[in-house]
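Input record (one chain):
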Amino acid sequence: MKKLLLVALAAAGAAFAKRKMDEGRNEQALWAEATDPVDKA
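The corresponding structure, as predicted from the sequence alone:
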């Protein structure tokens, strides 16, 4: 039973970490788009 709980906690931790990484990547993409230099035509 303890092993199952440990595996469940590890899976929850991995899901949380992945979500945080995805949020960070999305935030970085937004900043890159917002600060992209504008080409003068």
